[in-house]
Design a protein that fits this description.
The complex is a heterotrimer of chains A (about 375), B (about 500) and C (about 325).
Chain A (H helix, E strand, L loop, with lengths): L5 H26 L4 H13 L2 H26 L7 H18 L5 H30 L3 H23 L22 H5 L15 H18 L1 H11 L1 H6 L4 H18 L1 H9 L10 H11 L4 H24 L5 H16 L1 H19 L1
Helix pairs in contact in A: 1-15, 1-16, 2-3, 2-14, 3-8, 3-11, 3-13, 3-14, 4-5, 4-6, 4-11, 4-12, 4-13, 5-6, 5-11, 8-9, 8-14, 9-11, 13-14, 13-15, 14-15, 15-16
Chain B lengths: L7 E10 L2 E11 L4 E5 L6 H8 L7 E6 L2 E3 L4 H6 L2 E4 L11 H6 L8 H19 L14 H14 L4 E5 L7 H16 L3 E6 L2 H7 L2 E6 L2 E7 L5 H9 L17 E11 L5 E11 L2 E6 L6 H9 L5 E6 L2 E2 L9 H7 L1 E4 L3 H5 L6 H5 L18 H14 L16 H13 L5 E5 L7 H16 L3 E6 L2 H7 L2 E6 L2 E6 L6 H8 L8
Parallel strand pairs in B: 3-8, 3-9, 6-7, 7-8, 13-18, 13-19, 16-17, 17-18
Antiparallel strand pairs in B: 1-2, 1-4, 4-5, 9-10, 11-12, 11-14, 14-15, 19-20
Helix pairs in contact in B: 14-15
Chain C lengths: L2 H30 L7 H19 L2 H25 L4 H24 L22 H4 L5 H9 L4 H19 L1 H11 L1 H6 L4 H27 L11 H11 L4 H21 L2 E3 L2 E3 L1 H16 L21
Antiparallel strand pairs in C: 1-2
Helix pairs in contact in C: 1-6, 1-7, 1-10, 1-11, 1-12, 2-3, 2-4, 2-10, 2-11, 3-4, 3-10, 7-8, 7-12, 8-10, 11-12, 11-13, 12-13
Classes of the chains: A mainly alpha (about 375), B alpha/beta (about 500), C mainly alpha (about 325).
Chain lengths: ~375, ~500, ~325
């Protein structure tokens, strides 16, 4: 029996969980001797108070949309893909390779090539853990965590030993050619008299991220494959009954998941840095987990949650700049969101269910 | 003899879960040294009552008296201290512990294991001798059979000095022979002065084994009678509140050509144990073949192979065409495309996705059907929803709301959704397992009628059920499975429960 | 390679295996009771910080150890709350705890010490110093056995010997005590424990508490014995390697010891040799860095035998109605 209407479960529970996470974060800020109200004010003005701020907020949100979608798709197949960070790293490698090696005549073509490469590399990095789970029952959480760590070693090797330009001490590639540079919001929305989003990294890939949200929604709720993924995610024995192949679903869901995280690279590697550096992902793969959980693993929830976390990220950067609060505060907030929306959700759900039950009793 | 206090007495026990009144003012009195039966349908409130007696739930109102003393049972420890021992339907044993370890769990004598085990071993062997319950103390639970595991459960209770033994549906997993053995043990316990409460839905057991019986219906105790003063028909009527048709009216079968032909089927499970040991069987158009047997004798595996859920070896032909038993083309999708529909034994874990809407469940297994697609890429959910409305109306599913998720329907209505989906796919062969498990009586009649209608339309039906009444009532031909073999085939008119029971226990059969 | 080098590598192995072993045993108690714990990493990290911080502030490493244990137990209490009381997803809880520790340790370190997220270096009474076992100097020159005793066995900090002693102790607790029987039962069939009148919740919280204590010691060891202070992310994946060792060991104490020694050995080799020159082929340092993780995946792929976890692991216990 459903104890609570669907909207309450989808919106109210995560909202309250978020409020709890926010309250605890405020306590943490107090604990390190800073003022939470002032901190929030600074975050809001820094992240949302100017087009510059928005440019950064939306840039980060784009990253998180990709990794959030990645986690969400796998989650629908009951797979906890913690490997988004590694898959995004490998996606970066793929994007870098096509941008460096192929002489693109125009950025639109380069973008298409980079998207293909990013998705391919990301998917490949998810393929081995997926195969091991599907064929040998190896727990995907642990294998994907391992692959994050192995991926970092791979990127390290590639950047230090292979792709670093001769004579440079920096573990990074050279800058990509200008023909691969993507138009930023500044390029797209400024006019001769009014320059907006000055210097901010938000770029055209933001719209690709939005498109990805829509396509994922269509895939999961409107196609046969999506139906099978959801059914399998709910019940493996049911899937066998209906003739849905567990192996096929695990592999496809994980490949799509890895591909989405890998796609993130068109934003940070190609759109912003315009070269590949060590730790280009900066934890976006992990924030994607928080974003997906908060967004209830639904593309529209992911969209909203990604923007929220983009705000937190940019706000956190401003805080680190102007106060004594290190960037790690964002890691703590991210942890609290994951904790409340992912593990402690019954702490919110159970009392809510009791309230709804009492309301129902009262009206019947 | 002076007035003896009842061993256990309940007065006015009531318990509600939210709006559902699971137990309403229940009063029972059981004299020591007797076997008292409690009978009722699924959902009548028996399990709740037992949970209260064992301290899992606290009653909202009412009192419990043990040997005339008012007793509070706030938790299992209190129940054990009060001398209540419970043998659950699903055993509460640690599979990879030994018998001895399972018995002392929770009543170990002191912090160190070795001395506790030594002491317990002595006591256990004495108990075994006294009550004739033979089990090897060092056997590991997962290696001994179900009948022996049940003995371990009884020994657990006796070890804790239970005077009152409650058994919940004890014969569900036993062969008739093992069940007889159990009742012999219960009688011996009764003779030694123990009090036994037997919870069951099987009328036969009540009649055979109990001294007194209480009937529960919809949370209330509708009657308490001496077993010798009643009969199955009376009890059934008390159980459902109206005269129950224990037989279904159906015309004689008119079987046509062979639809399903199974030859020398072998099935080995994931643990490497052979579950189906070479059976041959056929089902013709326009007939219902019923496979009887105690759960766990290979019938589930048989259905699963036919339904494409697990591989097997041997030969299966559908209307003459061989069906692959493993590898490509042996999955549930392929089976459906060939015209085999499947109402599975476990509707909640297999036949439905509990969190899907009813309209989503209607496509389950049929989600590739052209009529549910809008184009090559997208499904046509509107068409699916319209089809669901039709099915809901035709099969009288309640509440008539296709947007409800499956878990919001009662067991009977969930089953109707599954049956509707499978029958409406117009299969050549319908596989149907435990069709009325956990289904209320009204829905049972409906579903039985649907099955017979399908058969009258010239389709083939293979029915698997642990309920002999259902088998006898529906089948045109009966096959009995025991230990992975077909022990014999009979016509319902030429056999009875006793003979079938013997076959189910592995006797008098020609292994086929 | 000569004998002395071998001894030195083995010596290093023991020192590197110790935190793995402690964390592995921590996970053993928890998982045997049915609570999956992938938050070993976070607990160790939190303990590493707090023990180093308190040791730095008080100059007393024992107070530091205590602080580390308390920190780890707070996090394991959180995990218990989420997993047991609120029946939440144990894997997500573990992931969240790892991030929480990762962020909070830097935040607090910056607040207390303003050194960019680390503690000041520890020395003297704020560290666990090596203990020379009796006669170690005397037998030093005895060939082979002397070197083994004085280099390999003697000269470790007390926590190493504690960790070694924990292995037979854990075996004894699990298989020879009432508590151990009940603990193992609750991870396999909590319903059997519940109907026997023993508290499933109590047992599981006890297991989680023991896990917290052992992770606390593991973390404290890292920052006050193996190294001299806390730095950001100093656990460097050890919690996950410990988890892999646990699976490799099929959740058994003595096997866990061997598994951790193996992984310790790999780390020791990687530390010493950086790029390994095998004549024609040079193995880059990144391979050695990644080798424990690769090996973990190989183990999980089941190429070294099937690992069957406790039957009721990872599932919250809900009374059947």
């Amino acid at each position: 029996m459903d104890k609570m209407p669907g909207w309450a479960d989808a919106v109210l529970v995560p909202l309250i969980s978020l409020v709890l996470a926010a309250i605890l974060s405020a306590l943490v800020i107090l604990g390190i001797g800073e003022d939470p109200i002032a901190a929030v004010k600074l975050m809001v003005s820094g992240a949302l108070g100017s087009t510059y701020g928005w440019g950064y907020t939306l840039y980060y949100a784009t990253n998180f949309m990709f990794t959030g979608l990645g986690f969400a798709v796998a989650f629908r197949a009951a797979m906890f893909n913690i490997g988004g960070e590694g898959q995004a790293m490998l996606g970066g490698l793929g994007v870098a390779i096509v941008c460096l090696v192929i002489p693109w005549p125009h950025w639109t073509l380069a973008l298409l090539g980079a998207m293909a490469a990013g998705m391919l590399f990301g998917a490949l990095w998810a393929a081995i853990p997926a195969y091991l789970q599907a064929r040998r029952g190896s727990h995907i959480v642990i294998t994907t965590i391992m692959f994050n760590l192995i991926g970092a070693a791979v990127l390290n090797y590639m950047l230090v030993n292979v792709m670093r330009p001769k004579g440079s001490m920096d573990p990074a590639t050279r800058r990509f050619d200008e023909t691969t540079n993507l138009p930023t919001f500044q390029d797209m929305f400024s006019t001769a008299d009014a320059v907006v989003f000055r210097g901010a990294p938000a770029n055209v890939t933001f719209f690709i991220a939005i498109l990805a949200c829509v396509l994922v929604w269509l895939l999961i709720w409107r196609t046969r494959l999506g139906y099978e993924i959801r059914a399998f995610g709910h019940s493996e024995t049911g899937a066998l009954y209906a003739g849905i192949s567990p192996f096929k679903i695990i592999m496809i869901a994980m490949l799509i998941s890895g591909g989405l995280s890998g796609l993130m690279a068109i934003n940070n590697v190609m759109g912003e840095a315009e070269r590949l550096v060590l730790n280009a992902t900066e934890g976006a793969g992990f924030i994607g987990i928080a974003v997906a959980l908060m967004g209830r693993n639904h593309p529209f929830g992911v969209f909203v949650a990604a923007i929220l976390f983009g705000f937190l990220y940019q706000g956190g950067a401003e805080l680190a700049l102007w106060t004594n609060i290190p960037r790690e505060l964002i890691v703590v907030i991210q942890a609290l969101v994951i904790l409340f929306t992912g593990a402690l959700d019954n702490m919110v759900r159970m009392p809510l269910e009791r309230i709804f039950l009492r309301l129902r009793k009262g009206t019947s | 003899m002076a007035d003896q206090a009842p061993a256990i007495e309940l007065r006015g026990i009531s318990k509600a879960f939210g709006p559902v009144q699971a137990n309403k003012d229940i009063s029972i009195s059981v004299m020591p040294g007797t076997i008292h039966g409690i009978i009722g349908e699924n959902g009548a409130g028996k399990s709740t009552l037992m949970s209260i007696l064992y301290g899992f739930y606290k009653a909202d109102a009412g009192e419990i008296f043990i040997n005339g003393q008012k007793t509070d049972i706030p938790d299992s420890q209190a129940a054990i201290a009060a001398g209540i021992g419970m043998v659950f339907q699903h055993f509460k044993l640690v599979q990879n512990f030994t018998v001895l370890e399972n018995i002392i769990l929770g009543v170990e004598d002191g912090g160190l294991l070795k001395p506790s085990l030594a002491k317990a071993r002595k006591t256990l062997l004495e108990l075994e001798k006294e009550y004739g319950l033979n089990v090897d103390p060092d056997a590991v639970i997962e290696d001994i059979g179900v009948g022996k595991q049940q003995r371990v459960e009884i020994l657990k209770a006796l070890y804790r000095q239970a005077e009152i033994l409650i058994l919940d549906e004890p014969t569900g997993v036993l062969t008739p022979a093992e069940a007889d053995q159990l009742f012999r043990i219960l009688h011996r316990l009764k003779d030694e002065g123990k009090t036994i409460i037997l919870i069951t839905h099987k009328l036969r057991e009540i009649m055979d084994a109990t001294d007194t019986v209480s009937v529960m219906r919809r949370g209330e105790m509708t009657a308490t009678v001496k077993t010798s003063e009643t009969n199955p028909e009376n009890l059934a009527e008390l159980m459902v509140g109206r005269k129950v048709l224990l037989q279904i009216d159906k015309a004689a079968a008119k079987p046509g050509e062979t639809v399903l032909d199974i030859e020398n089927l072998h099935v080995v499970d994931q643990a490497g144990v052979e579950r189906v040991k070479g059976i041959s069987l056929n089902v013709r158009a326009g007939e219902i073949v019923g496979v009887a047997g105690v759960a766990g004798n290979g019938q589930s595996e048989l259905m699963e192979v036919l339904g494409g859920m697990r591989p097997g070896t041997g030969s299966i032909r559908l209307k003459g065409q061989p069906l692959p038993l493993s590898g490509l083309g042996s999955d549930g999708q392929a089976r459906r495309q060939q015209g085999i529909a499947h109402v599975p034994e476990d509707r909640q874990r297999e036949g439905l996705i509990m969190d899907f809407h009813a309209w989503e469940n209607v496509a389950f297994g049929y989600h590739h059907n052209p009529e549910y697609q809008r184009n090559r890429l997208l499904m046509d959910n509107a068409a699916l929803r319209a089809d669901t409305e039709r099915k809901i109306e035709k099969f009288d599913v309640r509440p008539a709301n296709g947007w409800l998720t499956a878990k919001n329907f009662s067991g009977g209505n969930q089953q109707k959704i599954v049956v509707a989906r499978e029958i409406e796919s117009e299969p050549e062969l319908l596989l149907i397992g435990q069709p009325t498990r956990g289904v209320d009586v009204g829905a049972i009649e409906f579903i039985h009628r649907q099955i017979v209608a399908l058969r009258d339309a010239g389709k083939a039906v293979l029915l698997v059920s642990v309920e002999l009444d259902e088998i006898l009532s529906l089948s045109d031909r009966i096959a009995v499975m025991f230990d992975g073999h077909i022990m014999g085939a009979r016509l319902p008119s030429e056999t009875d429960e006793k003979e079938l029971g013997l076959l189910m226990a592995g006797m008098n059969g020609e292994a086929a | 390679m000569d004998f002395l080098t071998l001894i030195q590598i083995l010596d290093s192995t023991v020192r590197l295996a110790t935190p793995l072993l402690l964390a592995c045993l921590a996970g053993l108690y928890s998982e045997r009771a049915g609570i999956f714990d992938i938050g070993l990493e976070g607990k160790m990290l939190a303990a590493a910080f707090f023990s180093a911080a308190i040791a730095a502030l008080t100059g007393n490493v024992w107070l530091g150890l205590l602080a580390g244990i308390v920190a780890s137990m707070l996090l394991s209490g959180l995990h218990g709350l989420a997993s047991i009381t609120f029946r939440g997803n144990q894997l997500i809880s573990g992931v969240a705890i790892n991030f929480l520790a990762s962020g909070m340790t830097v935040l607090i370190a910056q607040d207390w010490f303003s050194q960019g997220g680390r503690t000041p270096s520890l020395s003297g009474g704020a560290r666990f110093n090596p203990i020379t076992l009796p006669f170690a100097e005397v037998v030093e020159d005895v060939p082979i056995l002397g070197a083994i005793y004085s280099e390999l066995i003697s000269g470790h900090s007390i926590l190493v010997y504690l960790a070694a002693a924990s292995v037979p102790l854990t075996w004894w607790v699990l298989y020879r005590t009432r508590f151990g029987l009940r603990l193992r039962a609750v991870g396999e069939a909590p319903e059997a424990v519940d109907t026997a009148g023993v508290s499933v919740v109590g047992l599981r919280f006890a297991a989680v508490a023991i896990c917290g204590i052992l992770c606390g010691i593991a973390g404290a060891y890292l920052s006050t014995a193996l190294q001299a202070g806390f730095v950001k992310e100093m656990t460097a994946g050890r919690g996950f390697i410990a988890l892999a060792a646990l699976i490799f060991a099929k959740w058994r104490p003595w096997h866990a010891m061997w598994a951790c020694l193996l992984f310790g050995f790999l780390q020791a080799v990687a530390l010493r040799y950086q790029n390994i020159d095998l004549g024609g082929l040079v193995i880059p340092v990144q391979v050695m860095d990644a080798l424990p993780y690769i090996l973990t995946v190989v183990i999980l792929a089941g190429f070294v035998g099937k690992a069957i976890p406790p039957r009721a692991g990872g599932e919250p216990y809900v009374k059947e109605r």
